[in-house]
Amino acid sequence: MQRRRFLHRHGKLPADRAAAFQALGIVWDPHAQDWRDGLADCQDFYAAHGHLDIRGKTAGTRIKALGATWVTRAQR
Length: 76
Description:
Elements: H1 2-9, H2 15-23, H3 30-49, H4 61-74
């Protein structure tokens, strides 16, 4: 899939193949998708708890795994 993403990014993946992958729900930029997912998780956490201290006991397993790392990287 990495090669297909490269070809797509450089406009060299045939349109019919790009459309087929698109219909399957392929994520063309997984890093951008991870960032959006992390942001959404942090927004949900903030809405529920009023803070972003994800290390606290109020965080669920998924938000701890995703969020703490995401928040640290996003602050840079």
